[in-house]
């Protein structure tokens, strides 16, 4: 609040010198409609302006009564030009000698100034907050809530007014009292002061209206809105809300029985209210510090998501609550880019409930890690707090964070901000790479841990075991090679059987025998080594070797059968087949035994 | 000759790893029912304190936590939290939180607290595997691991959100036992140091560490008696005892208890005994047998006499505290009922019914005696340990429902051994494998099968250092099994598998239906099947936190103390750390007195609000009227002159709230606060106004008004009712006719009257009876919910 004031003063001081009230501007006619039916005071004044000066006027002033000064939340103006509404620029200014009032300067479009002797209709809209006072200040549960409004019967203006009237809409027929200040009339809840004739500038006559107002008097005392943008396609919005009922305070006890059974009990209390989220909002949550608030409903409408929010308990005057709302929206709806330049366009403030008042709001915008050159454009004056860094999942250098502060915010302030920034696309791979490297390091560590020996004492057992398994794997290698030798011997024998070419067979066998000798020697050498390590295994290996010798003999017999008998034709066909198959069977048995023995070796 | 096929060790470790991993995952997910059905929230009563303390520690740092004086509890006494709490739980989650935040992973401390117990249950499963593997075989270990992952007896204390000491303590218990068994086996200082460290963690986590410090000495003692003394035993016990003693004294809450209380004396006695045994062993090698016999008898007599005299003398002198009440109640189950009603009022401290043994353990309760028998039959040092573990745990589980928790791991280990043995006998490699991959248990079986044949070859190859002692016996049994026909074999196997499947179904069902309610959020189902959530507790607590003064003092029965402090962050008079019986009795007295008398107590205690739980509208049976008799009993224990239990019963000895109830009952504060304006409420068309659904009766005292209190808030279903205590200038005083009015000096007389009464009530009237309440040791088991 205070910061914002300072800020506004700072803007206005720069413009103070040139601003003066132009006495030549006249207000021909003004009709004001002030809506008092909610917790806000919403005014709309249709003003017919006339320029009696001898030069075109570029801007006019609009003034608020001193009593309104601290309540102004929002002012806007538009010009009705050939039945089109043209928005006008409005800015707060201060005038020397009028420190008690609040002025707003309304600038006409540079191409359409108010020309000499011409008239134009303009419409000014404003919203006042906290301008209604509960009277009495405390009520019991069964009482109705009465509000007091102190206003001005005249149109308040720095210019002369020729004709004016003000209509106060209370939205109820139960009007306790209102100031009689003729001409005044009352029709179905509307109190109309005027029409009055010619008025001097800054005409003021206090009027009060005391009436029934049981609309929700809810005020957000503090709101923290966090917008977290991810370039993976998501925008997460979180709103932390401190909500209070600022109507007439509850006096005496709260009776659940009356509240449940009697319809007119606690009429001013707020049981639930509606909140509208963007239509694409998903995974909405509504919770507080002790968990999920189960009493809420969500409905998806065509253009929005409607959230029926019911606080844990009904809010009576003076009661307060605190909750968090969060949701996700897809980034493509709000994020624009060209190359590495990005533009985020989103609502700075969003709807919390109808006719909301937010006393103090902090907006936090968190951009992806690696963003730079931030350039923010806000729709309404706000105070920018120092930027910071935010760290979350897998962040190393931190996400740039913008913080803004605004105060006295109402629904009319809902509009988009624009945030331009630069983001190198290669940065997208930053976090996946971190994960990959982390897993890689983990695996490497495990591999190193498992493969290397870190024990400080010598473990004789495991060393022996390792040595044995080293020798065993070498032996296995040789045995496998030897098995291959046998295979090629088989092939050679087969070839011999068909071609009966003894010479070529002999040359092949020579090679095979040499290979065989190599492998056998290798095994024998290793077996000698093994003998020193494990007697048990050596015994088993010896078994293997014995069986293997048998196998070799069988091969020798087969060879003999082929070369000496078959080729020489010493045996008959049948006899040969019989002998051959017998040998084959024996060979297979031998091989099977060896396989078994090897299995037990492992 | 392919290497993969000829290398079953690779397969074995892969399958072991896969089963352990799956056990962890399924144990974790079985505990998530409450999170999925409701939300990630802290459950019940004690967890709320633990959560609050953890959050405090995370926010203010460890040293500030140790020095934390909680002025929001036990008003006006306060509580020194750092010195009256086992900080292991908070430290564990705080450390996890710290590490995650150092890595920029912004996990909220609440989520860590909620998921801590399920994660630790996985670690419990792993350590059970190791323990059983040491005791029996890896196959039995896998069975035990799968059992403990899903057994309801353990799940009841470790569902997500049940953030209590037991959640991590069972892991610490199993791991300590594993390390102890390992150190007894190896006799290495390394393992015994690890045992002591693990014991230290256990001491920091749970008061149940006393179980360890008595069980391990008992084991050592048994081994000594059986003549199984060895240097391994000597090394492991002496190292463990000394280190464990020094370390356990570092926990502020434990302090000097290990050398000053009777509960810990067994350990030091056995330490002396081990020393003596070591000395005799040494002397034996130096002198002749006859001399030795003489010395032995003489020394034994003298030392035991001295030790006994010393212990008795020290106890008499008050250096050693006698057994605390809670421990007496372990031996004498009626002790608590007679002497300490506050212990008896907790449902968890009731003796266990047979039904709950089956409910919590299912088939394991039937097979674990078989496992026990195998362990006794083929005993060795470490199997004797598990035998002792099981026998003592069975006893304690029979005494108190909550000690079912310590029985569960023992039962899982022995059940695992029994099943492993059965499958070893009946699942030989010739039997065709049952092709069914849908259940995890079958995987177990296959792994067992895979391992059985490979074992002999491995040992032969010198791969495993020690030849498991089972091999010999297994072969013997196998030869017995060989005689069994393959049909019988497959019938037994399949029926065992079916039993195991039923076990899984039962576990899931129990977990889902009995143990997965957060108890602060109630759910009811309407006729069309839609679920309605009754969130009244949080509604009331949140109302308190938002709409009362920050230093408002709230009086309620002690059950809700932790929840009020945790959720509403307001000052309470009494809470679940029931260390001060007289303070609780004072609250009980206020609740059972009439309104004016209660007002005196409440003003003397600066009470601003009174909170009662009332279930009469929705038929919630755990409400304050149903607990009321305990309040009366506890109040009577301290104020026997003013409160008498018999006044609250009818002449026929019934406890009634309808018009037949006693007048004392119908006019006490608790009655009035529960039923204020309830007499007007008509719940439906069939019942008359003022019909209490919990007790199925129309209330007896209707249409009364409150003078000293006013309704401040009542939740939607009337479950929680909060009353504001009026200030003295706010009552509607009874009208006195003008003639009878007397003008007194208000200041002086009021003060003197009040102080006089106060003196009479709390100091002179107090009976000088030394009860079993020792503030330091009573909260060894910080008790949880106090439902009837």
Automatic annotation (TrEMBL), chain A:
Signal sequence coordinates: 1-18
Chief location category: endoplasmic reticulum
Membrane topology, record value: Single-pass type I membrane protein
Keywords tagged on the record: Endoplasmic reticulum, Membrane, Signal, Transmembrane, Transmembrane helix
Presence of keyword Protease: no
Keyword Membrane in annotation: yes
Xref: InterPro entries: REX1-B, Ribophorin_I
GO biological process, one term: protein N-linked glycosylation via asparagine
GO CC entries: oligosaccharyltransferase complex
Pathway(s) per entry: Protein modification; protein glycosylation
Cell compartment(s), UniProt: Endoplasmic reticulum membrane
Pfam families documented for this protein: DNA_repr_REX1B, Ribophorin_I
TM spans (from-to): 433-452
Function statement: Subunit of the oligosaccharyl transferase (OST) complex that catalyzes the initial transfer of a defined glycan (Glc(3)Man(9)GlcNAc(2) in eukaryotes) from the lipid carrier dolichol-pyrophosphate to an asparagine residue within an Asn-X-Ser/Thr consensus motif in nascent polypeptide chains, the first step in protein N-glycosylation. N-glycosylation occurs cotranslationally and the complex associates with the Sec61 complex at the channel-forming translocon complex that mediates protein translocation across the endoplasmic reticulum (ER). All subunits are required for a maximal enzyme activity.
The family this protein is said to belong to: Belongs to the OST1 family.
Subunit structure: Component of the oligosaccharyltransferase (OST) complex.
Protein name per the record: Dolichyl-diphosphooligosaccharide--protein glycosyltransferase subunit 1
Organism name: Cinara cedri
Automatic annotation (TrEMBL), chain B:
Keyword Acetylation attributed: no
Domain STT3/PglB/AglB core span(s) in chain numbering: 554-610
InterPro entries: Oligo_trans_STT3, STT3-PglB_core, STT3_N
Reaction equations catalysed: a di-trans,poly-cis-dolichyl diphosphooligosaccharide + L-asparaginyl-[protein] = N(4)-(oligosaccharide-(1->4)-N-acetyl-beta-D-glucosaminyl-(1->4)-N-acetyl-beta-D-glucosaminyl)-L-asparaginyl-[protein] + a di-trans,poly-cis-dolichyl diphosphate + H(+)
Ranges annotated as spanning the membrane: 80-100, 112-130, 136-155, 162-180, 200-225, 237-259, 265-283, 295-321, 354-376, 383-401
Localization annotation: Endoplasmic reticulum membrane
Annotated region (Disordered), positions in chain: 445-478, 744-788
Cofactor: Mg(2+); Mn(2+)
Keywords: Endoplasmic reticulum, Glycoprotein, Glycosyltransferase, Magnesium, Manganese, Membrane, Metal-binding, Transferase, Transmembrane, Transmembrane helix
GO annotation, biological process: post-translational protein modification; protein N-linked glycosylation via asparagine
Amino acid composition bias (Polar residues), ranges on this chain: 777-788
Record EC number: 2.4.99.18
GO MF annotation list: dolichyl-diphosphooligosaccharide-protein glycotransferase activity; metal ion binding
Domain annotation Oligosaccharyl transferase STT3 N-terminal: ranges: 15-414
Gene Ontology cellular component annotations, sorted alphabetically: oligosaccharyltransferase complex
UniProt entry tagged with the keyword Endoplasmic reticulum: yes
Signal peptide annotation: none
Metabolic or biological pathway: Protein modification; protein glycosylation
Membrane topology annotation: Multi-pass membrane protein
Family assignment from sequence similarity: Belongs to the STT3 family.
Protein name (database record): dolichyl-diphosphooligosaccharide--protein glycotransferase
Organism per entry: Cinara cedri
Lineage summary: Eukaryota, Metazoa, Ecdysozoa, Arthropoda, Hexapoda
């Amino acid at each position: 609040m205070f910061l914002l004031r300072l800020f506004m003063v700072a803007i206005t001081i720069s413009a103070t010198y040139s601003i003066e009230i132009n006495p030549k501007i006249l207000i021909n006619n003004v009709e004001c409609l002030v809506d008092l039916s909610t917790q806000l005071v919403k005014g709309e004044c249709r003003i017919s302006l006339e320029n009696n000066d001898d030069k075109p006027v570029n801007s006019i002033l609009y003034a608020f009564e001193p009593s309104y000064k601290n309540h102004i939340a929002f002012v806007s103006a538009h010009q009705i030009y050939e039945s089109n509404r043209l928005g006008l620029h409005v800015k707060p200014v201060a005038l020397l000698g009028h420190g008690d009032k609040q002025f707003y300067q309304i600038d006409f479009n540079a191409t359409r100034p108010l020309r000499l002797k011409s008239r134009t209709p303009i419409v000014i809209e404003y919203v006042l907050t906290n301008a209604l006072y509960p009277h009495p200040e405390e009520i019991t549960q069964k009482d109705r809530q009465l509000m007091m409004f102190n206003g001005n019967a005249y149109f308040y203006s720095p210019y002369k007014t020729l004709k004016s009237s003000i209509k106060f809409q209370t939205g109820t027929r139960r009007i306790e009292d209102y100031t009689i200040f003729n001409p005044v009339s009352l029709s179905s809840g509307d109190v109309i002061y005027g029409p009055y004739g010619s008025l001097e500038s800054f005409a003021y006559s206090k009027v009060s209206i005391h009436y029934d107002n049981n609309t929700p008097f809810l005020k957000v005392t503090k709101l923290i809105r966090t917008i977290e943008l991810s370039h993976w396609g998501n925008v997460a919005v979180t709103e932390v809300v401190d909500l209070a009922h600022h109507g007439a305070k509850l006096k005496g006890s709260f009776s659940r029985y009356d509240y449940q059974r009697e319809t007119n009990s606690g009429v001013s209390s707020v049981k639930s209210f509606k909140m509208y989220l963007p239509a694409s909002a998903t995974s909405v949550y509504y919770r507080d510090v002790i968990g999920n608030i189960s009493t809420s409903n969500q409905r998806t409408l065509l253009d929005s998501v409607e959230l029926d929010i019911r606080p844990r308990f009904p809010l009576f005057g003076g009661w307060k609550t605190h909750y968090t709302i969060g949701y996700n929206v897809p980034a493509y709806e709000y994020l624009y880019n060209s190359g590495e330049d990005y533009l985020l366009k989103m609502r700075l403030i969003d709807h919390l409930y109808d006719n909301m008042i937010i006393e103090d709001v902090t907006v936090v915008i968190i951009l992806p890690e690696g963003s730079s050159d931030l350039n923010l454009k806000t729709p309404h004056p706000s105070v920018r707090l120092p930027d910071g860094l935010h760290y979350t999942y897998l962040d190393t250098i931190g996400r740039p964070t913008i913080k803004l502060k605004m105060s006295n915010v109402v629904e009319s302030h809902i509009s988009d901000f624009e945030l331009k920034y630069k983001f190198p696309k290669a940065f997208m791979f930053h976090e996946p790479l971190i994960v990959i490297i982390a897993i890689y390091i983990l695996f490497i560590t495990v591999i190193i841990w498992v493969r290397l020996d870190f024990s400080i004492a010598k473990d004789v057992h495991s060393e022996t075991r390792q040595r044995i398994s080293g020798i065993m794997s070498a032996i296995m290698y040789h045995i496998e090679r030897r098995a291959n030798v046998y295979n090629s011997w088989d092939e050679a024998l087969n070839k011999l059987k068909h071609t009966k070419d003894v010479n070529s067979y002999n040359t092949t066998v020579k090679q095979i025998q040499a290979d065989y000798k190599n492998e056998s020697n290798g095994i024998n050498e290793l077996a000698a080594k093994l003998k020193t390590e494990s007697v048990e295994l050596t015994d088993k290996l010896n078994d293997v070797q014995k069986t293997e010798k048998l196998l070799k003999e069988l091969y020798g017999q087969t060879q003999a059968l082929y070369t000496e008998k078959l080729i020489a034709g010493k045996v008959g066909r049948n006899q040969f087949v019989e002998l051959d198959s017998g040998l084959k069977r024996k060979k297979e048995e031998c091989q099977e035994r060896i396989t078994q023995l090897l299995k037990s070796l492992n | 000759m392919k290497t993969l096929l000829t290398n079953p060790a690779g397969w074995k470790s892969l399958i072991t790893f896969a089963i352990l991993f799956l056990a962890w995952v399924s144990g974790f997910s079985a505990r998530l029912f409450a999170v999925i059905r409701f939300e990630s929230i802290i459950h019940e009563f004690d967890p709320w304190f633990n959560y609050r303390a953890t959050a405090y520690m995370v926010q203010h740092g460890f040293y500030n936590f140790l020095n934390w004086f909680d002025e929001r509890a036990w008003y006006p006494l306060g509580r020194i939290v750092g010195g009256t709490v086992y900080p292991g739980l908070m430290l564990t989650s705080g450390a996890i939180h710290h590490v995650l935040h150092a890595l920029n992973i912004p996990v909220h401390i609440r989520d860590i607290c909620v998921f801590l117990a399920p994660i630790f249950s996985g670690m419990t499963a792993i350590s059970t595997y190791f323990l059983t593997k040491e005791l029996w075989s890896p196959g039995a270990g896998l069975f035990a691991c799968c059992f403990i992952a899903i057994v309801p007896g353990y799940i009841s204390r470790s569902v997500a959100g049940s953030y209590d000491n037991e959640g991590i303590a069972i892991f610490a218990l199993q791991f300590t036992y594993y390390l102890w068994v390992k150190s007894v086996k190896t006799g290495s200082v390394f393992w015994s140091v690890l045992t002591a460290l693990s014991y230290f963690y256990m001491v920091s986590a749970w008061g149940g560490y006393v179980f360890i410090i008595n069980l391990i000495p008992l084991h050592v003692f048994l081994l000594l008696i059986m003549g199984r003394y060895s240097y391994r035993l000597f090394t492991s016990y002496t190292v463990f005892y000394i280190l464990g003693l020094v370390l356990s004294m570092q926990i502020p809450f434990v302090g000097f208890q290990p050398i000053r209380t009777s509960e810990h004396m067994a350990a030091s006695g056995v330490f002396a005994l081990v020393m003596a045994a070591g000395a005799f062993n040494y002397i034996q090698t130096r002198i002749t047998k006859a001399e030795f016999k003489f010395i032995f008898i003489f020394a034994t007599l003298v030392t035991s006499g001295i030790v006994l005299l010393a212990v008795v003398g020290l106890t008499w002198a008050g250096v050693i505290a006698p057994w605390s009440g809670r421990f007496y109640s372990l031996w004498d189950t009626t002790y608590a009922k007679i002497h300490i009603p506050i212990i008896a009022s907790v449902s968890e401290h009731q003796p266990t019914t047979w039904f709950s043994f089956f409910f919590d353990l299912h088939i394991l309760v039937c097979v674990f005696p078989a496992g026990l028998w195998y362990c006794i039959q083929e005993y060795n040092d470490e199997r004797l340990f598990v035998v002792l573990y099981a026998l003592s745990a069975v006893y304690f589980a029979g005494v108190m429902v909550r000690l079912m928790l310590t029985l569960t791991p023992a039962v899982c280990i022995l059940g695992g051994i029994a099943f492993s043995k059965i499958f070893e006998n009946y699942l030989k490699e010739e039997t065709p494998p049952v092709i069914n991959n849908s259940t995890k248990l079958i995987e177990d079986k296959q792994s067992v099968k895979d391992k059985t044949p490979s074992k002999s070859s491995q040992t032969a190859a010198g791969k495993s250092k020690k030849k498991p002692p089972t091999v010999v016996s297994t072969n013997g049994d196998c030869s017995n099994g060989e005689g069994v026909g393959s049909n019988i074999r497959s019938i037994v196997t399949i029926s065992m598998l079916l039993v195991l499947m039923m076990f899984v179904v039962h576990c899931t069902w129990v977990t889902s239906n009995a143990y997965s309610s957060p108890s602060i959020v109630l759910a009811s189902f309407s006729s069309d099947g839609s679920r309605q959530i009754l969130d009244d507790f949080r509604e009331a607590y949140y109302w308190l936190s938002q709409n009362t003064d920050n230093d408002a003092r709230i009086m309620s029965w002690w059950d809700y103390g932790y929840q009020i402090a945790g959720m509403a962050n307001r000052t309470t008079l009494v809470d679940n750390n029931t260390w001060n019986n007289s303070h609780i009795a004072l609250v009980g007295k206020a609740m059972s007195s009439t309104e004016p008398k209660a007002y005196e107590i409440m003003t003397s205690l600066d009470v601003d609000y009174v909170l009662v739980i009332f279930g009469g509208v929705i038929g919630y049976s755990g409400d304050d009227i149903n607990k009321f008799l305990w309040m009366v009993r506890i109040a009577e224990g301290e104020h026997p002159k003013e409160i008498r239990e018999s006044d609250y019963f009818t002449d026929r000895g019934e406890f009634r709230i309808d018009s037949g109830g006693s007048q004392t009952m119908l006019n006490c504060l608790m009655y009035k606060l529960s039923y204020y304006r309830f007499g007007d409420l008509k719940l439906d068309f069939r019942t008359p106004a003022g019909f209490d659904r919990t007790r199925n009766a129309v209330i007896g005292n209707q249409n009364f008004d409150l003078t000293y209190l006013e309704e401040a808030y009542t939740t939607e279903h009337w479950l929680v009712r909060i009353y504001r205590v009026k200030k003295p200038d706010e009552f509607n005083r009874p009208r006195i006719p003008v003639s009878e009015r007397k003008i007194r000096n208000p200041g002086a007389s009021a003060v003197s009257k009040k102080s006089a009464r106060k003196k009479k009530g709390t100091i002179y009237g107090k009976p000088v009876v030394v009860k079993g309440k020792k503030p330091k040791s009573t909260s060894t088991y910080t008790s949880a919910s106090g439902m009837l």
